[in-house]
Amino acid sequence: MAQLTRISSSLKMGIVGMANVGKSSTFNMLSKQSVPAENFPFCTIDPNQAVVKVPDPRFEYLCQIFKPKSQIFSTLSIIDIAGLVKGASEGYGLGNEFLAHIQAVDGLYQVVRAFEKEKIVHTEGTMDPIRDLQIISEELMAKDYQFVSKRVDEFSKKIKKYEANKNVSVEARDMVEQFKVLQKCDELLKKKQWVRYQKWTELEQIQLRKIQLLTAKPSIYLINLSKEDHDAYMAKKQNKYAKPIEQWVSKNSPDSKIVYYSVENQESQQLLDQIIMAGYDLLGLIRFFTVGSDEVRSWTIKKNLKAPQAASVIHSDFEKGFVNAEVMSFDKFKKLGDNALDQYEKKFSKEGKDYIVKDGDIIHFKTKQFK
């Protein structure tokens, strides 16, 4: 699948859904896993944003072995996005707030209610998960189409001026490349096709990462069941809404994962961990560890980064002054058992600048010092 979202180690998941489907309850459930604010002294977290701990038994094991003075785990930012109603792309409900928030995230948790309850009124009058899925999809496509059509008109006028003035600057060439991508997106959105599920060249992907369209964002579908229905589903993997939902997702969002859960079952740590990890994996993130008696730390990076780029998340100078990386997989470390502290430093392998960091690597970076 093409990489159409930002390439960064600080990515965000957004929770979206129709009103009264359990969206904010899901956010509140996940917010209970929030990292205390004092762990992030240089940023202010808005009330609608939570920074949650990414569960990892490997990290816990390393902390048990090294008993460090400081333990710093990986985190994931989650934003509660204003509720969606039909017509949000035209400004209905909190449409403008909804779309401003969703543009700021890199992946989506789409919450879909799949249980009847008379006390919980649906904005559309009835409970229909397939209709809700379709409304969200169509609203995102409609907003993208508005944005792209406007950009196509703006770029067309500017490019004509560039051509008249024989402007061949880097800025002009970049605009021409982006204009071509926008035209392609315009045609796709007219046909009500998500941008994410088309074939894009590497150069086109670079332009799409700049544009950050809503239909380029990957999604996870969180199917909110009643506690009774969820217990039954976990026992028998059956629910009357499951098959039509799975068929819709398979047809419209073929690479997306579906997680069945219940906001009424907030005590299930396994369920919370599953939702958090699904978002982390969706964004293409992995972890490597630095270890010692002073600190054990889990670092978040994008998949397929080479060692110098991975080192840069610790400090930008580490990439510039990279010499080598001493690497050991977590599995290899664990096999050392009771002798791990005595033997692990002798078991590292030295890797150069072309080494691609793997999930769970334990790494010591060797770098040149800069004055």
TrEMBL record:
GO molecular function: ATP binding; ATP hydrolysis activity; GTP binding
Domain called TGS: residue spans: 284-367
A GO CC term assigned to this protein in UniProt: cytoplasm
Keywords, ordered alphabetically: ATP-binding, Nucleotide-binding
InterPro entries hit by this protein: ATPase_YchF/OLA1, G_OBG, GTP-bd, TGS, YchF_C, YchF_N
Domain OBG-type G: 11-281
Highest taxon of the lineage: Eukaryota
Listed CDD domains: TGS_YchF_OLA1, YchF
Name of this chain's protein: Obg-like ATPase homolog
